[in-house]
Fold each of these.
Amino acid sequence: MTRPFLSTTALLLAFSSPAFAIDKSAVVDNYADIAAAAYGDSLITAKALQAAIKTLTETPSAENLQAAKAAWISARVPYQQTEVFRFGNAIVDDWEGKVNAWPLDEGLIDYVDASYGGPSDENAFAGLNVIANPSFTLSGAQIDAKTITPELLSETLQEADGVEANVATGYHAIEFLLWGQDLNGHGDGAGNRPWTDFASGDSCTNDNCDRRAEYLTAATDLLVSDLEWMAQQWSDGGAARTDLLADADAGLSAMLTGMGSLSYGEQAGERMRLGLMLNDPEEEHDCFSDNTHNSHYFDGLGVQNVYLGEYVRVDGTLVAGPSLSDMVAANDADLDAEMKSKLSTTMMALGRIKTAAEAGFAYDQMLERGNKAGEALVMGGVNGLIDQTRSIERVVTALNLDGIDFEGSDSLDDPNAVFQ
Amino acid sequence: MRHMLFTILATVAPVTGFAEQDPRVAHIVQDHILPRFETLADASDTLANSARAECTATSDALRAAYFDAFDAWVSASHLRFGPTEIENRAFALAFWPDSRGATPKGLRQIISARDPVAMSASDYQEVSIAARGFYALEYLLFDEGIRALGDETYRCTLTQTITADIAAMSHAIEDDWRTDYAAQLLSPSGDGHYRSDDEALQELLKALSAGLQFTGDTRIGRPLGSFTKPRPKRAEAWRSGRSARHVALSLQSLNELSRMLAGTDEGLSRKLGEEFTRASTQLTGLNDPVFASITEPRGRLRLEVVQQSVGRIRTLVREALGPALGVAAGFNSMDGD
């Protein structure tokens, strides 16, 4: 019979004790700690990828190509968990195109199958193939690409001719160079680039193996330096952290903006539902490696991390502290339970996609016209993400963040600001 | 004690549960939403009938029916929640923008293979959304390449099937609104889709702000491209000469919705009306149906001015209308990149 007593006490405490209030800036601070850890892990795993690629280019072999691919897959685990920091933090959103731009017209970079087609109305450089062409004309200027450097990729080729599909840098450019095109359509298998594409002398296949290795090295060096910069921004005194902590309410708003915008517009819409509705095997986020199930899973996990205020580092360490969940629970325990339950439901649905993919039913097979099981799996994830967005909106209301501009990446660069 | 507490709650709950409904929601459902989806269903029927009667791409009657139905869609295109989102209906009615050319690619595949899927509208629901709806039909009626592809009989069947598919989706949207969704929006409840009037109002505010964002950033922003590289061929429905018309129609609809949301706040309603009128007048003054003039600095600047006016409306909605309604802007499908 102690129960009624306990609830009465709890009620009294809830009404009378401001000590139970959660410090907003501690929640924002913990969020910045998680970002610092996740970008730090992205850097650590990118350096491991860089080392594996150095081994591959110095000693090309099937084993060394496989090791580089494995390093790329590992590097995606922490990076995808950082995507939730993108929307809501302008410093990340302005930068992320360098490292994770997608989709890409890969013919810009290297040889492609005849079925790819060439230049299109949208992109005159879709078939440029810089690896095979040490010199070419771009928007009227003659470009010297005799040496493939990080600067050539980032300053000249990235978004060449103002076309976003000209992706010359980042994870997906590296992914293409490691795997090659996935020519299996909705069938079994990922890209299957032969290791001899990096071999020297007569063993070299598909020509220009030295330039291909040079490109791969330059792109990986660039990825490492870009991640170094971002990890710096979240460390003590870094710009991202300082901006966020300057105003705790704006910081909370950034956290929820990231959760909602990634869940709804980006992941549920652009990355998952659209590909399904188009039945296009190239509409998968990691289309060369068939690693899309992991990309989606870790994106979803990133959203859950931010709400729960927890992140498991690549060395197994848990980073945890005061969370949005604590704040919501202090105001409205039912809403906190609802939010947690929706996030779990989404993770279960994304887990099903991952499970099926790892057992051999690849994400691009799920997108095939008329594939009901695949459609149900993908839509399970989409519905979970859409549903959790409604609860995120309720959290915004419950935390009285209504007055703050709540839109996504587009509004971060307010087009009107230019004219003011 | 616990028992008594429940009794008290049970007595109080119905009072708050059936609190006086916000009159703005009912007004918007009856006079803004339902009429638009009714017009869309009717115009889509006429379109499907016209294609059955005469399916050649140059048929005046077919093109006129297409324009009427497309007008009806654009005027409802901001209402992207509930029935439009079931079974991918709105995505399939209106797949645009198409930055990777999925619509011509999908149509070419289907026409070249004489895919039997085009023999029935119900089978056709399986195909990629890029090959369905108003934008795919625009290629069949107005794109020289697609109009010359394969044989005419097959293209005729495909035109009839796409229009029948459009009609079926439009009816499904209208039916769901009438039989189910209007009631959900009008009667929020603790276990319903909308838990309070505030959530219903938030949905409508989101439709307004997402509609403004789409018109400003996509319908206008996409062709504008960058100063050094304007992209008139990225304008919406330029093949059928409808780009500016879509901006005008969407502004009309969004103006009406914003005024209904402002409700009895006459000052705000007037201010919104002035801003919408400014944008529409500037657009009319442009006198450029497919934004062809944006390749010249003068023409470009004039379209940028229209975009800025849409931006001013967005600011007003965010900073004045949202707070007046007491709801946050929420998330929309364009929040990604």
Amino acid sequence: MAPAPSSTSSAVTLNINGEKHRLTVDHRTTLLDALRERLDLTGTKKGCDQGQCGACTVLVDGRRAVSCLNLAVAAEGREITTIEGMAEGDRLHPVQQAFLDLDGYQCGYCTPGQICSAIAVIEEHAAGWPSAATDDVRPEAGPPPLTPDEIRERMSGNLCRCGAYVSIVQAVTRAAEAHEASAGDEGTPAETVKGAAA
Amino acid sequence: MREFGYQRADDVSGAVALLAADPDARFLGGGTNLVDLMKTGVERPARLVDVRELPLDTVEATVDGGLRIGATVTNSDLAAHPDVRRRYPALTQAVLAGASGQLRNMATVGGNLLQRTRCGYFTDLSRPCNKRAPGSGCSAVTGEHHNHAILGATDHCVATHPSDMGVALAAFDAVVTYETLDGPGELPLADFYLPVGDTPHRETALPSGALITGVTLPPAPVAARSRYRKVRERASYAFAIGSVAAALDIEDGVVREARLAFGAVASRPWRAHAAEAVLTGAPADGDTFAAAADAELAAARPLPDNGYKVTLMRNLAVAVLTELAEEAAR
């Protein structure tokens, strides 16, 4: 039996930075291309377009993901946060501010992806996730301190061809310390990563 | 990229039925490998059946002390799960050694098992490749093969399986469960990947149209003391050139039980049964560990440019087993 003909485009509603966008997408459209070419959200950058450089990193349901390997049609129903959605009005996100203050970039092309990734790294660490740099991954060992080695490992999915890594690690360190201090002030659990099981 | 239809499946039986309706359809999980292969034209599905929202996203303890891992559990959630970290730490380490934080948030357990080789000829449509175009020849045997297989390969294909997770699953006797139109089934991971032979394009023993629903880990007290170590050409975010998953149970200086599996050396995660036979009942010392590694690697058939892997794997296995023995002695 021949398969029923199948449409190659769909009308979707994408929830981006808290706003709903209705558009019809060819199924081949990646989330990255939908953001940049259809919705004029050009803060998210296209680097390799094959999941290897991290320039297109966004948050999907609060978790970092590469938008070049996400299909726009498959992103319907998910909450997408791009670099444009990180600041609160004129007040930069603390990670954005730390990158500015510590020169966590040179040309700036990878920076939106670096910042989106770093925001998620800080949440993942606060939720107790171990990394490949963590010596003892057993839960009894407790959460690892966010050392420069931990940051380098956790940020390894974001390449910077200018080689601004030294400043990037410093910026993530400062932002993570501020995050930890504010979490302590509020006396709230740090676990904000969606569904974190740690 | 070829145009394709897209449907999101709500339940397992619906997903299997949707796939069966179109012989050119593929399941879409995290998409980290499939979407990439579609961009390069290696994969040209007419339809994608999105299975990422199926209710298969939990890790649960089984009554006998094992774990049942759903197929759509992401790599991140698997690695962070307290029971995995406590009872199978090498599995957490293996998952965390693979890809990047972004990709681990997207990738699923089922997709991880079915990911394709990263052999450069497989993705280069201008070159012969028996895995991509059966009968066209293997470019790697006489070409670039410094990171290709040393165990179980044939002249038809010398590609390696790229999974880190699979190496730990192989060490811990994982069983893959699946669903077909005719009902559920299961395959031990040992039987899941087919021998290369002269049909390298046939990679798994999954029945046609089957959907992986999960992976079951039987109870393995030995796994509580386990490690995964990966060697690669840069410090992070790269595929292995060799890796080892190992677990040791030592009593009075003697190995009571051992698990050992190698990665990046064969077309599948390579369970080192010959090495385990040498280890079991022998003194837990360097001589035993070296003899065990040698026993496994006696079958190695390196190519002109990947002979270093035999030495690498020997040293890596000895190092990881030594670390485990030192940990046990503390």
Amino acid sequence: MHTLNRRKFLTLLGSTAAGGLLGLPAISHGAYRARVIVVGGGYGGATAAKYLRLADPRIEVILIEKEKKFISCALSNEVIAGERDLASLSFGYEPLTAFYGINVIHDEVTGIDANKRLVQTRSGQQHGYDRLIVAPGVSFRWDAIEGYDEAAAQLLPHAWKAGEQTLLLQQQLKDMPDGGKVYITAPPNPFKCPPGPYERAALIAHYLTLQGKTRSKIIILDSKDRFDKQALFEQGWEQHYPGMISWVPAAEDGKVLRVDAQKRTLNTEFEVHKADVINVIPPQKAGYIAEQAGLTDGSGWCPVNQQTFESERRENVHVIGDACVAGSMPKAGYAANSQAKVCAAAISALIDGAKPPVPSYVNTCYSIIAPNHGISVTSVYTFKDGEIIDVEGAGGVSPLNASAWERRMEATYARSWFDNITADIFG
Amino acid sequence: MLERISRVKNLTVHLGMLYPLVLVLGLLQVSAVHAQPSHRMLGDACAGCHGTRGHSSNPMPIIAGLPEVYLKQTLRDYKSGKRPSTIMGRVTRGYDDDQIDALAAFFASQVWISPKQEELDSKMIKRGKRIHRDGCSTCHKDNGRYQDDLVPRLAGQWRDYLEIVLEEYWLRERTMPHLFMVIAVSELEEDDLKALANFYASQR
């Protein structure tokens, strides 16, 4: 994986030729004509770093990311289901340095000075930039559910950032006796991975079934009255795990107001639920650094120019992925990957003093209901009147009454999607 | 940079004399030509499933370097529903004909690279080679390396993908395009599909 193969060599060579050989003098950064710093090395940030270098190797790219390894949240429900391990979801940044010349710094950005075009890091370093890309993902609204804070998350895992939290939830399900009650609290829109809570319910049911704990129940208490791919999920739940999963919408008292981590109880307006395992998926907002740098508005998310992803609040700062408001695109890994490419192309053009190119965006979210049962939702997007909108007549969800063969194929393609997108980002 | 700007300025001065004409042409252009995303902009958005520039990971098919006409037709068939799919129909309806042509041109202009494939079955490869020689080699010449407007390259394609498509033709659960393929595959046994997939995957 870490050897320069022919494919990568050709990709880089092709981009050099296409990047133009105008022979313009370097402006201010040694051999480079501009420096772009990317904050955050997830689906969005790492893609942006790589595609900036593919667009124009004369741009110096620094990627600042706290963690040495990225652990994907997509497909982490398969870890909870005991179907794969975390290692299969983990990716290092070495290839980005070796093949694409990206300077990866493992540090944490603690401050952004947009006027001086500087970022400050935890280790006390300062780095100047011509343009900055902020891709921090989401952070949790710890004040939204009474009793649910970072300490409570050690007892009632959110498992909405893959890693220790994922394993904690897995362990609790393993230890739970047959007939136990698993509660999942689903957050209000918008949040990261809209189909995620419902896929999780299915894969927990799958796991408990394999363990012979078929008398167990999974109850989703939701802050919403409908959810992504709802009919497909409900059909799949009933087909594979009849009677095991129930969903309580907000209108039927589904909104959780308070939890007690010690007693393992959840309070809605009218009821107290006693649980064996509680998975709280908290309400969300843009990652901490975006808020700290003044990139968010009253909604907690970052308004941007949806063609270039430049912040509406700070010049020369771009925000991509879950943290930004991107028209009708959901907060999802593929969406972040697609936005990153549009952003990289725009920045490359802007550095050249050219107009940003006409964008095109795609998103696909696969969900796995059972190992041989996948479903999907997809959209192609265009930029119109200042906003990202769905191309009419395209996209949509898998058909409701597809054959078993098609469901099996979609599960296969779901895992293939993961291999392809992670190779596109980290390979 | 400065030199470029001054050149552009000079150009503006000269064109200034033709201003009324430029204005008219400009208006015509705005109304007649719908600004399209570049080939690369369109193609890069596909990489989430099809790999960077069409060099995919198993079992998504490698599309880098397939014939342009073949890609155009296949994308159009997905869009019209003539070729069944799990998701490609929904995706291709997001693109107009010019964009589909651009996507085909983008992926056709990439270089095919046969990936290293693990766990190919040598017995199956032998059996597949015989079936290929007796039944498939008229169209899929040169052990599947040959390609033209109607025939995609098979040599070095992912084994699992080859098996999926052969199964699609063989099961006849869905109506596949290329009647010739439907007929050809109908004469095979189930294990023959695996054998062919192993054989073509083993080629470079």
